[in-house]
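seq:
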Amino acid sequence: MKCINCGTDNRLKDRTANQGRCRKCNHLFAFEPTSMSNVQITDPFFAKAIADISANNTLFFTPKQLLYFLDNRLKKNYKSISRFGWLFPFIFFNLVTSITIFLPLIVNLVVINFFHESSKSTKLNLVSRKQYARNLQIIGGIILSIGILALKSFTLFVIIVLVGMLPIYLGTRQIGRIELLTQDFLISESQVKDWLDRWQQINGSILKILPSPKQENTPATINPDVTAYSFDRLVVCDSASIAQLLIANNFHFENNCAILSITGYPQSIFNTTMQMLRRNPDLKVYAIHDCNPRGIGLVNNLRSHANWFLNSEIAIIDIGLTPRQIIATKRGMFIQSSLESAQAAKQLPEEIRQSLSAEELAWLESGKFVELESFTPQRIIKVLQKGIAGSQSLEGDDSSLLLVGNTGNDMYVVESFG
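struct:
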């Protein structure tokens, strides 16, 4: 493992002999991968993850975003196999044993089951699961090619065809639906918290990681000259964490907009900001939220509450996340599932259900959900900027926007999340 302080490569015996320190500069290592259980990380791995999620220390990020980021990187190598490392031994075995039937039949069924179960594993990322599914198709082709050429009995021919077609069918089916399969975390929030504490204890504070949003109920004093103005745009988030993320990364300054959460964050300027916003009849509101029953209800909350935009005719653009975007995407989002989310989806008000297709409702009622914090800060900012830029003229032919609702109560939905 290389020392992040001086770059010296330290083998295990070097680290052991120096009580976990670098043999050259004596810098203490934060992690010892050989003593870890389910996953192993190194100091260079963790340092690169921090640099990458923060875009080389230029963007703030939340602890949960780091959890998703680390989980994805660890899954790339977790119980995975090389793309073609298994191929030649598999072909050789089938060629050598082709004169018999029972031994290769049993072994092939075991191999098929292994690859099929791996393609369904929620502990692997979608790229690895798709690789296993494609390997199933390859296995089927090999079994058919070798078996048909080597066998002359019609009965054995039928058996080989059935065994060969099985992995082709299973692999094709998995590839067709793999983008919408759910995942589980390989690591936990408590593990990441322990790693962060250990890292900062040794290497100093991580400047770009955000603390939990603070509740500041005391109104801030704002210059009257400032409150005389308004904003042309408002971004409303369904969580204080995302609002804090955007504010910390100066999204409001760079895009000339106000940023609030549906929970009222930041509380100290919420009322004043809303007074300023209501002065602008041409205000555009952009909603960004998790894809779960609570998030899907964000736009409806903005329309139906007096402290937001009840009886207002302003345009509201739903940036996402929506089930429509997830079903249509091919990027492999981190989809989770829970019984609580399924129950909440079935209790959605009728006015929200009417804005969703049957496919979207089925997706939500199955308990699936996607969190905004599964995306990096850079991705969230780019998607939001693109959504704002694409809605400058709502009367134009912008194919990226879908009108939902009726006159006087318009809601525009961005069809693609990035």
